[in-house]
Amino acid sequence: MNAEIIAVGSELLLGQIANTNAQFLSQQLAELGINVYFHTVVGDNATRLEAAVKAAQKRANLIIFTGGLGPTKDDLTKETIAHLLQRELVMDQEALRSIEEYFKRTKRTMTENNKKQALVLQGAEVLKNDYGMAPGMALTIASITYMLLPGPPKEMRPMFIQYGRPFLMSKLERHERIESRVLRFFGIGESQLETEIADLIDQQSNPTIAPLAGDGEVTLRLTAKHESSLEAKKLLDETEAAIARRVGQYVYGYDNDTLFSKLVERLKEQNKTVAAAESLTGGRFTAELTAISGASQIVKGGVVCYTNEIKEQVLSVPASVLATDGAVSEPCAKLLAEHVRSFCKADIGISFTGVAGPDPLEGKPVGTVYVGISISGQETEVHALLLSGDRETIRTRTIKYGCFAILKKLTASL
Amino acid sequence: MNAEIIAVGSELLLGQIANTNAQFLSQQLAELGINVYFHTVVGDNATRLEAAVKAAQKRANLIIFTGGLGPTKDDLTKETIAHLLQRELVMDQEALRSIEEYFKRTKRTMTENNKKQALVLQGAEVLKNDYGMAPGMALTIASITYMLLPGPPKEMRPMFIQYGRPFLMSKLERHERIESRVLRFFGIGESQLETEIADLIDQQSNPTIAPLAGDGEVTLRLTAKHESSLEAKKLLDETEAAIARRVGQYVYGYDNDTLFSKLVERLKEQNKTVAAAESLTGGRFTAELTAISGASQIVKGGVVCYTNEIKEQVLSVPASVLATDGAVSEPCAKLLAEHVRSFCKADIGISFTGVAGPDPLEGKPVGTVYVGISISGQETEVHALLLSGDRETIRTRTIKYGCFAILKKLTASL
């Protein structure tokens, strides 16, 4: 089955909302092993919608529509499809009853145009709307399956999961299972990663290996197909092992993991606490960690030492260090990490100092960054980085680098 | 000019990301008065991309592509278009130099496939990439304008605004000017705002007034059309004044202002400094302020007092207060604000303490929040809030509330 998703709605073409429906349905279809080759967005215009449907009929045997099922004149998805397929629209009594009940329940007056929502394509399977009024529908004509879903994600998502997905599964003839896994990397660029595993990517089609880069990280999505879900997972394991042999040192997690969630998890496991001295990053490191529920077990706190005054008076960096080496320096990062650790009585102290831009500081170029890590009983490490990008990119990469560096040390000490 | 936006990338068809690029570009094109009739998403597949381009050529005279300009084999947008238009790809020396510099600066190894990014369509205007490696390009052939932009939003957005938009404006022949202005509100809900100005929204079509809610804020976008840009702006001024007479007390800024950028701006104007004691928010308040360039003038720093230990030992909240009133209490918020102000020698001290969830704390329900504000020479204020939403929503609304509260006090003291 090859699918195309057609979203109908001028609000999408005006940029008022993003087409998150297509994203959701694509994920769902990928899980069912149905290929999606095109997304199309078209406005509330019958002629252009008709053109979009005709194009889709040539290249897909499953066409899923979202939007345009409402009560107003703008809503013309089913009317257009009825016209194209030469099917009647008939009143669905159950849908009509549920619309009437909705108005009774919310004590609002039902206007005549609301009845329009209960019209469905003759012969279609009606998909119930448990969270709104307009029902969905699905039918197959001349080997093409058409599924019409409402536009509001709050109605569309449960309708698809509850009724649309089972309808499609009954249509699927094969029993192939699809399993996918995302490997998350830090500290390696997309092109270097691809170079390291180019032969693996080229040689194999099951699992497929798809790289994606963003926000200083790279991910590889492995997708395996097999009649048995267990066998598909085994295929994933084998490919993951082959990748890990080459670039395993850069892997930090799977699927929805983040560097921050992994760090919180690891610190909890090892029963260790952290405190941060944040100059460059202004509190973002602790803000990210404390965004995760349960962080109170492992985050002691921190000092946002944005000014030299606070570095000196609160975190006891000697004035001489600030005067000779500067705030953006290895000695300063070292002292900040050590002092914030003792100041907050934490097991691990981390410090971030650097030049976020737009202007150089202390004669040091934008992107100069020092990350200090102080752990009780170990020598303090200072990592010097030179990052590119704008202010926000530099700050984001800095805190991610800090997370990854602590994670590495925690793994080494296991 | 009628536009179609074609996004290229299998990650979109797999549902890994939503097509926010199409949303952004649609908004931008709407502002320029360019109609967008279709969005298309196609995978990293030359045959299907070619089909999509051919369909677009029949219905649009501006085709904007996003994605597929990177270094890997998957990236084939410009190659496919070059083939379709029978244009050569030529090495752009400036782009190549900037890629080489990027690798030099970040001390990473440049692999051969990175050079591919500097190839551009012969005769195209090259659009510089200030935030990444792959340049964009634009050219007009047979009355159709093709614009190729990179996929990562962080690169695509500034490239379009800086270089793509001016290119399109030079192509536009009509003389009607479109001016728009966004008014930003805090402390009033969308439905209340809409009720207050319902008659203004209904009665007028130039400017149009479009409300949008999100992240605890509401905005109104005013859009005016006129042959003269000056007259269009006058129309905006009049409508803005009418709105301000009703709900002006909730307006905090315009367009791309944020509560944080406004606070930094105001503090600079008044030459005042701020320091924060952050329990609930874990450093996010100072992180947001220091994300803005020039914050070093006004942010002294802060203490992330996530544990009671730090509240007591660093910020001198008496153990008795923590034992009887608790960390989430008015007295604690008051002392935290006062003490962080004196501790960091700032003009304004602000504190955030509360229950972010998922579980209640000290017998207080999730969403209980206290914001303390201490200003030299004034009595300390503590605002008690009861917020709804998940952990992140509560934290976000808390720091926004803090910003707005300080802004109000700064305005009052003018």
From TrEMBL, chains A, B:
Protein name according to UniProt: Putative competence-damage inducible protein
InterPro entries xrefs: CinA, CinA-like_C, CinA_C, CinA_KH, Competence-induced_CinA, MoaB/Mog-like_dom_sf, MoaB/Mog_dom
A Pfam family: CinA_KH
Lineage: superkingdom: Bacteria
Chain ranges of the MoaB/Mog domain: 4-170
Gene for this chain: cinA
Family: Belongs to the CinA family.
Transmembrane segments: none
